[in-house]
Amino acid sequence: MKVLIVFAHPEPHSLSAALRDVAIRELETAGHEVRVSDLYAMNWKAQVDRADFPALTEDRLMPAAASKHAFATGTLTDDVKAEIDKLLWADLLILHFPLWWYAMPAILKGWVDRVYAYGFAYGVGEHSDTRWGDRFGEGTLAGKRAMLIVTAGGWEEHYSPRGVNGPIDDLLFPITHNILYYPGFDVLPSFVTYSTDRFDDARFEAAAEALRQRMRDVETTAPIPYRKQNGGDYVIPTMQLKPGLEAPGTSGFALHRRG
Ligand SMILES: Cc1cc2nc3c(=O)[nH]c(=O)nc-3n(C[C@H](O)[C@H](O)[C@H](O)COP(=O)(O)O)c2cc1C
Known about the structure:
Elements (H helix, E strand, L loop, with lengths): L1 E6 L7 H15 L3 E6 L24 H11 L4 H12 L2 E7 L7 H10 L29 E7 L16 H14 L4 E2 L3 E3 L7 H16 L17 E2 L4 E2 L18
Parallel strand pairs: 1-2, 1-3, 3-4, 4-5, 4-6
Antiparallel strand pairs: 7-8
Helix pairs in contact: 1-6
The structure holds flavin mononucleotide (FMN).
The site of flavin mononucleotide has 15 residues, from helix 1.
């Protein structure tokens, strides 16, 4: 497999960087080809602004319209084009980051904002009253796999279904479902390491071994069973889940999984 790791941590000696190297070694040992976009090392520009659209002539910057035009005319900036090429190259995308304020670091969000161009990651397929585009299970990146590797300072229990932080799968849903599944990726369960600020050698080795196992299984791990938008489960055009499809008592983000 061709694997792209998009890595967001400023410190080469961080736990995140050590786990990234564990993942790379295991993937390469298994014969996979690995490329890394190390966003801090690349000095990745995180903010969307006018400089992203050198061909723009209008006075008013409308980011989505500008993105659509730039993608269609091949006038996106070279740094964004290079990341799009890497996404097209990869069979597996890994977003690797520390949990910062229950979300990804801003530099990684800025990678998504800029690389996910209109016509590439969204605005794909027919948009009408009978079809709401190719998204959530369909789209440019369909047929590829993706997953998250996340380090979190908090305890695992704090992220359990009744934990005060909210369940980890809910917190990550805006990324796994709305950023990765949206343009078509099959999304594997996230690999999350907890209590990271209390790590010693034994805990690191346990986390590293669990990560090695996940890397050995990347080709066979079953994706999260999200519902396909265009698979008949949703009412078009309101895009609401049809009544009665969920198990009794299911609510919230879990509605969008087939079990
Ligand atoms: C700005 C910032 C925000 C953080 N927010 C969270 C958080 O929301 N939840 C959490 O569990 N840990 C949080 N942490 C702790 C980090 O997740 C933890 O320090 C990191 O996973 C350790 O791995 P590293 O050595 O790779 O940085 C935060 C840390 C920083 C610096």
